[in-house]
Amino acid sequence: MKEKQDDPLCCGQRAERWRPEHHGYYFVLLGNGTIQSFRWHSTEFDYQAWSYGNCFRRRRDAEQVREQIKEILLTFHREQAKLGIAKP
């Protein structure tokens, strides 16, 4: 796997961060917090995960980010509850 990719990507963006090589593995956070590995096949899903920032070289990186995202989501919902916006 390379540190950087220099080839153009979708939407006219160029890779300035790590992206798996073709057939290389990467990790994604799923909506329920599960971490799953995928193989890069240059599919729309692959590029969307990468473009969104949900494409990790190592499982431990995905785990670290998962905890940060969980805290952000829980903080958001606690604030909404304080404001009386969130109704159970």
Provide structural commentary.
The chain contains two helices and two strands. Helix content is 38%, strand content 11%. The protein has one domain (10-82). The chain has helices spanning 44-52, 59-82; strands at 25-29, 35-39. The chain is of the alpha+beta class.
From the structure above, extract its key features.
88 residues, alpha+beta, two-stranded antiparallel ribbon, disordered N terminus
In short:
With 88 residues, the chain is an alpha+beta fold. The chain is built from 2 helices and 2 strands; from the N terminus they run ββαα.
How are the elements arranged and paired?
Elements lengths: L24 E5 L5 E5 L4 H9 L6 H24 L6
Antiparallel strand pairs: 1-2
- Spatial order of strands in the largest sheet: 1-2
Rg, please?
16 Å
Reported for the largest beta sheet, the result is: 2 strands, antiparallel
Element order: H for helix, E for strand? EEHH
Q: Bin the helical content.
A: 25-40%
Total number of β-strand segments? Answer: 2
Shape: elongated
DSSP strand content: 5-15%
End-to-end span in angstroms? 46 Å
- Total helices: the number is 2
Question: What's the number of domains?
Answer: 1
Average residue pLDDT: 86
Structural class: alpha+beta
Which spans of ≥5 residues are poorly predicted at pLDDT below 50?
1-8
